[in-house]
Amino acid sequence: MSAHHIDITSSSKPSELLIGMLSHSSAGLLKALFRSIQRLLTSAGTLESVHNLTETQLPQSIKLIIQNKAIFGYQIYSLAINMMSTLIHSEPTSLATLQEAGLPEALYDAIDSGIEPAFDVIAAIPSALGALCLNNARSNSTG
C-alpha cells in the first residue's frame, strides 16, 4: 500500500474504528486534510488555488466519499459536502467541473438514500443545495 492510499475496505481491529469503517488514524488524517483545504479555500486571494484544486482528483475524491458515506462516516461525509459547497461559493465557475465529475448527482442520490441524524450532515446539506441552486440560477440568467 502506498503512503497516499487509504484502505476503505476494512480496519485491522474493530476497536480501532471511529465512525464508519475507517480506523481512527485514517479518519483523523482525512479530517485534518479536509479542514486544511477548507481554510485555504476561505482565505483571501486563493482564486487560483481553487481553480487548481478543481483540476486535481479532489472532485473525484469528494464524490467517492459522498457515494460511500457509510464507509467514511458522517463526520468526513459532512466535510466532503462542505468542501463541495465551499468550492462552488469560492469560484462559481468551478460548478461546471464539479458537474462533469458527477458531484451534484452523487449528493442528490446520497440525500435520496436518507439523511444521517447527525448535526454536521444536517447543517451541511442546505449550504450545498444553496450553492448548487444559486449557481444554476446565475448560469441560467446569463445564458
Automatic annotation (TrEMBL):
* DUF913 domain location: 20-137
What protein name applies here? DUF913 domain-containing protein
Q: Which organism is it from?
A: Puccinia striiformis f. sp. tritici PST-78
